Amino acid sequence: MKKMRLIKTFLLTLLFLTFTFSQQNKEFISKLDTLAEKTREAFNVPGISVAIVKDSTVFLVKGYGVTDITSENRVTPETVFGIASNTKAFTAAGLAILVDEKKLKWDDKVIDYLPEFETYDPYVTREFTIKDLLVHHSGLTGGYGDLMLWPASDFTRSEIIERIKYLKPKYSFRTRFGYSNIHYIVAGEVIRAVTGKSWEDFTRERIVKALDMKNTYMGVSELPQVKNLAKPHVELEKKLIQIEIENTDVTGPAATIYSTAGDITNWMLTQLNNGTSPDGKEIFSSERSYEMWTPVTVLGGKRNGDFPSAFSGYGLGWGIREYKGNRIISHTGGLPGMVSKITLIPEQKLGIAIFTNQQSGSAFNALTYFIMEHFFNKPHEDYVETYKTRNEMRENRINKRIENIFNSVKKESKPSLELKKYAGTYTDD
Q: Which of 70, 294, 318, 391 maximizes the CB count within 10 A of its CB?
């Protein structure tokens, strides 16, 4: 009899805890719904897609708003967004697969696979490794060479690589962080050299299909078949304008994947499970996972990014930092009119993806921090108001600088030469 009472008490307690947990989740999702709509309104974002994974399961996948202001179709978990530089982690994972298969090593020299690869400095050319391609410490300033990619370019990847030798570094090799898209293009060509397959085909076969990501595409050229597609938008003088999707498929390994919140849950679950997919397949080993999440290039501490951080750095396709005692693995992505953020907190077994069809990083940050701090069980501020205030302060600073520039220009000033004397043919290496 006593044993039966104990079992009954246990079952009632379990039922109570399950009900309480379920009720807490409902309350959180309700608050998230309210915040998502507040975020859309505050930052003029037409549509947002949110994915949350927790403790090896999909916690939530949900869409808010519309895919575009023309059709006003609703965003769903299957709406396709450009994830831009979140592509870089896929490229790093592809190389990790080849390291697992002993087809290359992180410290192998790039010229051993791509003899045509050449930098401004012969020493750097000789010493540049596969790992160096992924960690943004080549000595170039951030974004150097991007004008070969954006606006939409007619360069081929081989032509871009051929021109890297003309980019003069500002810093010494491996000493400073300088974000680089062009070196990820080189990384994709290393995959081609090793496997005989394009970066697109290899990534689709070994990662996208392996993770059953049925609504994930390797570039703009594959999008005509997509009906549920988010369109990019920009804000000009407080007015929202829908723009065309630029075909920047040449950026490939750096920025071309299009995916959905629903699909990206499998990617986040695999990352949080150290390379093993939700159905138990090893995509890459736990050793490679550890390497990709290990900082190589130091970004700094104290105050890096939006909020105080004890440390921050860049690993292989991921940024790594501390936030309120938690290790944060994350990356953002930005295309004209579309930005995204993927955040992993390994010790919490928590993953968050926010996709938007407008250029406001404030939108994905406000939602990400709210979700993180809910699962951290820590009090959180109103991040929408925080980012609104920051944006206004930044805008005021910028407007003041522009005003000062124009005020410093003499009204009667004219060009040094007649305009027709500027006409001619110009070249740039």
A: 318
